[in-house]
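Hi support team,

I submitted a single chain yesterday and got back a structure, but I'm not sure I'm reading the token output correctly. Could someone confirm the output below corresponds to the sequence I sent? I've pasted both exactly as they appear in my results page.

Thanks,
R.
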Amino acid sequence: MMQFNTPITIAEIDKLDETFTFRLPEATKKQVDKLSSQQKKKLSMSLLLTTAEILHEATFDARKYLSTAD
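Hi R., thanks for writing in. Yes, this is the structure output for that exact sequence:
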């Protein structure tokens, strides 16, 4: 599981206007459907944070932190 250094609340996240779907096994979907609303919110937040972390890693450039050269 990913570890997040900066806690964020749902109030700090922009309005969730867009939909992104992904495929998962039927067995997993059945288990997700059985989650409580609180557990589904936790899952959604984890997915949002993991997406943000992957996007951050994709644009990471160590030179921004290690060099003042343009």
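A quick pointer for reading it: DSSP finds three helices and no strands in the chain. Let us know if anything else looks off.

Best,
Support desk
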